[in-house]
UniProtKB/TrEMBL annotation:
This protein's name: SPFH domain-containing protein
Record-annotated Band domain positions: 188-344
Compositionally biased residues, Basic and acidic residues: 21-30
Biased composition (Gly residues): 32-41
Annotated region described as Disordered, given as residue ranges: 1-51, 86-111
UniProt organism field: Streptomyces adustus
Transmembrane regions: none
Pfam families in the record: Band_7 (PF01145)
Compositionally biased tracts (Low complexity): 1-12
């Protein structure tokens, strides 16, 4: 039995291997195996010709019999050993390669059409619309007088002379159409702009600009107008599901302060921007842990800051500007409220007991120290222990009667 680091099979005997040029054991004299006869050198056998090439040219090892490793003799017998070449096995001596974990990537932010950006829409002062409408109305009256369709009393009230009675010809119809269109465009495009509100103009499904003018304004009546509130707004949510750092279910009411920054994206980039904001708040509450008030100093503020950053990032792509998302009320979920209330009461009770015990021990120590230092009593160890015990019981009983 022996250990070897060679790629060849070691000899069966534990002794030294045969020297080069000597007969191998187990063979008849004069026979050196196949390919050799009469002790004469012949061609090398096929096994020796197919030896593997050395993989490490400068490394050689030797065979060491196992029984020599456990000898207690001071001068072990030297045993000649034959050199052997170390064959490197696939993967031997190689350290496993570890891949560094990649950085956690943030969830993708929703993308809106980059060309959908708010720009100023075309609008005119309302006085021009009133003037155009008045001109159209006056033109209709004149054409009616021209064709003779205007009654005499009305013509006299308008200080018009007697009707010419030209009838309804092509020219009269064209004049009628022009004056009616002018009046409709003049009065139909009038709108009242309010502070804090804007109009998103839409023509056949294509964004045509945003009007933020206040007062009487004239806008093309062929454009569809969507009113948007751009004032600073706040939204108080309903109880939403959340969890603290330990995974305990909570119910949280949050107050969100926000406003519409880009009216084009808020109205046309998403179906309903208010519903989208509410969904963003719910998604943020599912990822950010919220602590109960008083659990740790500043934990509620840190959770509010994290919620605000996450919601502002998600809602900013649809034209909403979120200023703050702050939990207003945090309470345990109904399914765990009773158990957590008992746990909090037990913790408060244990904390109160610890504080009472600490104060009692301080009082006992102060009393015994004063009695000893002033020489009022001389106590050995047994008497000191008995005095400490009696004082502790008395102080604890007095604190217990005073606490209720």
């Amino acid at each position: 039995m022996s250990t070897t680091t060679t790629s060849q099979t070691p000899p069966e005997s534990g002794g030294p291997g045969p020297a080069e040029g000597q007969d191998r054991p187990g063979r008849a004299e004069g026979q050196d195996g196949p390919g050799r006869s009469g002790g004469q050198d012949g061609p090398a056998p096929a096994e020796e010709q197919c030896r593997p090439v050395r993989l490490i040219q400068n490394e050689v090892t030797t065979e060491i019999p196992v029984h020599l490793l456990f000898r207690d003799e001071p001068d072990p017998v030297s045993v000649p050993v034959a050199p052997a070449v170390v064959g490197r096995r696939p993967g031997a001596g190689e350290q496993p390669r570890f891949r560094r974990p990649g950085l956690a990537t943030a969830p993708p932010v929703p993308q809106v059409d980059p060309e959908l950006v708010e720009h100023r829409g075309r609008a005119l002062p309302g006085a021009l619309g009133v003037l155009a409408g008045a001109c159209g109305t006056a033109g209709c009256a004149v054409v009616s007088w021209w064709t003779g369709a205007l009654p005499v009393p009305v013509a006299q009230a308008l200080w018009l002379p007697a009707s010419a009675g030209a009838g309804l010809g092509p020219a009269q119809w064209a004049a009628y159409a022009g004056t009616v269109a002018l009046g409709l465009f003049g009065f139909g495009g009038l709108a009242r702009g309010r502070t804090g509100q804007a109009w998103v103009l839409d023509q056949f499904g294509r964004y045509r600009g945003t009007v933020r003018r206040t007062g009487l304004t004239w806008v093309n009546p062929l454009l569809l107008r969507h009113r948007v509130d751009v004032r600073l707004r706040h939204w108080r949510s309903e109880p939403m599901q959340a969890a603290d750092g330990n995974g305990v279910a909570l119910r949280v009411l949050v107050l969100v302060v926000w406003r519409v920054r880009d009216t084009a994206r808020a109205m046309l980039g998403v179906e309903d921007h208010e519903t989208y904001l509410r969904e963003c708040v719910e998604a943020a509450l599912a990822r950010v842990p919220v602590e109960m008030p008083g659990a740790a100093r500043g934990s509620l503020d840190a959770a509010a800051d994290a919620l605000g950053r996450r919601v502002a990032r998600d809602a900013g792509e649809v034209g909403l500007e979120v200023f703050s998302v702050r939990p207003v009320r945090v309470e345990y979920a109904p399914e765990v409220a009773a158990a957590m209330q008992r746990r909090r009461i037990a913790a408060l009770d244990a904390r109160q007991r610890a504080s009472v015990l600490t104060s009692v021990l301080d009082s006992v120590e102060d009393t015994v120290t004063r009695l000893t230092m002033r020489g009022l009593v001389e106590l050995d160890d047994y008497e000191r222990k008995a005095l400490v015990k009696d004082l502790t019981v008395a102080f604890c009983a007095g604190r217990g009667e005073a606490s209720p």
